[in-house]
Amino acid sequence: MNLYMGIDPGYSGAIVIVEESEPIHDAVRLSRTEHDVAGFVEEYAPQVQYAILEKVGAMPRQGVSSTFKFGTSYGFCRALLVCYKVPFELVTPAVWQQVMKCRSKGDKNVTKAAAQRLFPRQKVVHATADAMLIAEYARRRATR
């Protein structure tokens, strides 16, 4: 079974796994414990063909504390991919959103609506919407 992984690295983000022929296989929110998130990646890593980690940086007017927390989450996600030998690429929001036709300009409702259209039988929430779209972007990129 070929799996593809999408990661929205914000603390309120998620990691989503999609299969080659099925919509959503599994997901974990990054608000869970680090141990839970690491166990999730470890479980699926051997079957993940390709992953996309959203390439992000500090946002204007974001506080020092929240920037640090965001950077910590990003580094943690990247380290998990390296440690578990998951092949991955960094992709900016502008790139994956253009391909997935959901340029949000920071409005999470845009990506949530796009994920719901793409996965109508799945429960879509703000915490998982971007990761769902990034995982689908990873599947499309890997299987083209």
Verbal overview:
There is one protein chain. The chain has 144 residues and is an alpha/beta fold. The protein has a single domain (3-143), classed as Nucleotidyltransferase, domain 5 (2-Layer Sandwich), CATH 3.30.420.10. It is 47% helix and 20% strand. It has helices spanning 34-44, 64-83, 93-99, 108-118, 126-143, and strands at residues 3-8, 14-19, 24-29, 48-54, 88-91. The model has no long low-confidence stretch (mean pLDDT 92).
List the helices and strands and how they pair.
Elements: E1 3-8, E2 14-19, E3 24-29, H1 34-44, E4 48-54, H2 64-83, E5 88-91, H3 93-99, H4 108-118, H5 126-143
Parallel strand pairs: 1-4, 4-5
Antiparallel strand pairs: 1-2, 2-3
Helix pairs in contact: 4-5
- Unreliable segments of 5+ consecutive residues: none
Question: Mind describing the biggest β-sheet?
Answer: 5 strands, mixed
- The total count of strands amounts to 5
Radius of gyration, rounded?
Answer: 14 Å
For the biggest β-sheet, the strand order reads 3-2-1-4-5
Query: Per DSSP, what share of the residues sits in E-state strands of 2 or more residues?
Result: 15-25%
**Share of helix, binned:** 40-55%
**What is the CATH class?**
Alpha Beta
Q: What is the number of helical segments per DSSP (H or I, 4+ residues)?
A: 5
- According to CATH, what is the topology? Nucleotidyltransferase, domain 5
Termini distance?
17 Å
- Given the C-alpha coordinates, what overall shape results? globular
Average pLDDT works out at 92
Structural class: alpha/beta
Architecture, according to CATH? 2-Layer Sandwich
Total number of distinct structural domains: 1
Would you identify the CATH H-level superfamily?
Ribonuclease H-like superfamily/Ribonuclease H
